[in-house]
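Researcher: Let's run the pair from yesterday's discussion. Sequence first, then tokens, for each.
Model: Starting with the first of the pair.
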Amino acid sequence: MFNGWISLRVQDPKGVSDWYKEHLGMEVLGRREDLGTQMLGSVDKGAALIFLPGEKSPDPERVQLHFHVDDVDAEYDRLKGEGVTFKAPPKDMPWRWRHAYTQDPAGHTVELCSPLPDAHFVE
């Protein structure tokens, strides 16, 4: 497995990081207080996100962060209960995955997804 990170420049690294911690359960893996940088992720899973101070992207919604969850509908209900707004309820997609879309405080697209029971994978 590759472990790495994705760096995103945002106006409020701590505020955006707090959103991911509060709603998606990510944990702080590192920080540079002097730079205002936050690194979030999971100690045992995949890539981390690094939020760096910088100007807001003119098209932040073009950055799409995909999170595989066990049950999109349960996560959708939980997050709506926490005040997270979604573009629409979860939907089955033609590629046999179920998706729900929201945005983080910086405007990046955050996609929750899970495979439908009859989804086929190429290995």
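Model: Moving on to the second of the pair.
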Amino acid sequence: MTEASAAAACLAGWHEACTASVGVPSRSQSWLWAVRRTPPVIYFDAITLGEPPERSALPERATELMRSLATIPGRLDVCDSWSALDLAAHGFVRDSPQEWMVRPPKPLDPVVSGVEIVRVTDESLLDEFEATHNLGFESTGTPPRTFYGPSLLDDQRMHVLLALVGSGRSVGTAMAYVTDDAVGVFSVAVIPAMRRRGIGAALTRAALLCAPDLPAVLQPSPDARSLYARLGFETFAEFAVWVRSAQTALSRYG
């Protein structure tokens, strides 16, 4: 399995577990994961998997992808892990290219002192995780269990991590999703008042330690890329994000 296909499998596995936890069903086949109804805004609606097909087969794959999302109204966000599809004819606009990053298994520096990283194991702590996650991503006002539901706590592949300081104040979040081939790092966020203190690095380190013998993969935000580079992550490929706006959907299908 190549790095790109391993990274896509982690991304799709994390999506499947998270969306199912809030009641959004999905389906997966050898080359595609896709939701069956509109998911919360932080998730893709579809993710391509495996190795890219021959160039001549790409138009057919694009058509199949659109067929799988035909019942989803409004805005659509598709992660083309191959960066090979062309969805413009289906009303999509390609967003700026984004990176896959990987870190091979190797020793980690000690965690920053004064930060405790705990695994979330009960529903009350999961609600605290989500509230901290939303504050870290500056998305306050979202009701509890909009993005993450209790079934995540029963999934042995999923590690939900919370950073605590002082007498137990929650200041940051991270998630790790472990497959046979890689560990995916997701949802690394630190509340605004506690940034630039090494907490994001501590959370990322804790996620890596969930599967220290596997390569780690992630999709960095522009603001966090330098943090991951300092931790030993390197860019190995680009992926494409295709977006169909709600307005486009109305004009094409309304």
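Researcher: Give me one sentence on the second I can quote.
Model: The CA atoms of residues 18 and 148 lie 6 Å apart.
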